[in-house]
Write a structure and sequence with these properties.
The chain is mostly helical and 104 residues long. The protein has four helices and no strands.
Length: 104
């Protein structure tokens, strides 16, 4: 159950980053409300997960999901570059997080 908290928390982190970008681009007040709700939910679920799981791996997975998801959203939704070097860096983040999980 705790890993489900981490995964949902990571998705909330990605939503937070997306709403932060919406706020920067359009200055819609609803975006700031959604941004705060997404980040609050993300931290709450991370808190629930860290009570049982090791903090080092849990935080690495959460941060990795946020980083990779943020880049993915920016490429898909906002048309940022999908240069091969960026994609290699994303792959390195994923491999590093998986490696930390496998060695924990």
């Amino acid at each position: 159950m705790e890993w489900l908290y981490v995964i949902v928390s990571g998705f909330c982190e990605v939503m937070f980053v997306n709403y932060m970008n919406v706020w920067q681009l359009k200055r819609k007040k609803l975006a700031i409300v959604k941004m705060c709700m997404a980040f609050g939910m993300s931290l709450f679920l991370l808190h629930l997960a860290i009570r049982v799981l090791p903090m080092s791996v849990t935080y690495a997975v959460w941060t990795g999901m946020g980083a990779v998801g943020g880049v993915g959203i920016s490429i898909i939704k906002y048309g940022e570059s999908a240069d091969w070097r960026r994609l290699i860096c994303i792959a390195m983040i994923i491999f590093a997080v998986v490696g930390l999980k496998l060695t924990a």
